[in-house]
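Subject: for your reference before the review

Hello V.,

The reviewers asked for a structural picture of the protein, and I figured it would be easier to keep everything in one thread rather than splitting it across files. Below is the amino acid sequence we used in the manuscript, unchanged from the supplementary table.
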Amino acid sequence: MPPVEKDNLFYWLALWRAPGVGTRLYARLLEQFGTPAAAFSASHEQLRTAGVTRPTTLDYLQTPDIAAIEQDLAWLEKPDHHLLTIDSADYPPLLRELPDPPPLLFVHGEPSLLSHPQLAMVGSRNASPAGSETAFEFARHLSGCGLVITSGLALGIDAACHRGALDGSGLTIAVIGTGMDRVYPARHRELAHRIADKGALVSEFPVGTSPARANFPRRNRIISGLCLGTLVVEAATHSGSLITARQASEQGREVFAIPGSIHNPLARGCHRLIREGAKLVETADDILEELAGTIPLVLDNIQRTEHSDSPAVELDSEYLQLLDTMGHDPITVDTIVERSGLTTEEVSSMLLVLELQDHVASMPGGLYSRVDKRT
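And here is what came back from the structure prediction:
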């Protein structure tokens, strides 16, 4: 056994690294022994009575991996690096309500933000341009109304939500599925730094934990568990976002979903959630009104409009007619030509202008889609 540390965090970290010790066994050991340090002083018989049966776990509690624990402690010595234990006053109260709350949270950024009113926003990694635009605008608007936007730093919708919140109030939380010494995906390193600077990065995983498939459902339960509700922006029928939504429902939190075109595979997950009871969302105010009784949002400051805060660009009647001709489903240039009676050259030129003004987004397969800027 190592000598008793002045800082009891050593034993909190050591117990969390013990093989076979998950959230529920960790909680039982705390209940049985009072502190993590006491578990390391317990006999094998006492540990078995508390539920520790694996030989590897019993051996570890006699000889913990000191080198690995020192990596965690070294990380904590850096500026703005924090560790919240479940008995800490700063531990987020909503997360503590879960049946399996993480006993430890590594936080890079502002830890008090984890107790602020939050909305989880999640969706497809392979988001459409329109879906990313919608996520960005919703996050920007909702963060400006007082909600912290929480997501998972993934590609697609998650990243758009974080960027939208940074463009709004700047308050956003990214819950990650790796150790805090890693950024996954690596291309989001700069985004992670921005989030840590104005919000917070959060993980339950010790330093050195690599991305693994099993980590992300665990991460998702924290995303939904921190929040009053979860909004799914865009998701296929087998999207991991639906796991987050299901966990939110099981946790007794609100679930919201944005509908889309019946022809868009990335809308089917949202449609499934709506059929199962999720609240259909058309504007950000739909969410704010639903949560107004739960949190002290200042509804007087909410702009009740179906359009974004940005002034609309004036379009000629020909361009407006072309948008009407397109409808709201993805469409090919040939179909637009057929419907409008214009030449291919005229339609292509007008689509370019509309895309530059963010009224239209190009999609894979030569399709074009209207961008709905309602928030």
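For the response letter, the relevant points are probably these. The CA atoms of residues 145 and 302 lie 7 Å apart. The chain is about 40% helix and 15% strand.

Happy to draft the paragraph if you're swamped.

O.
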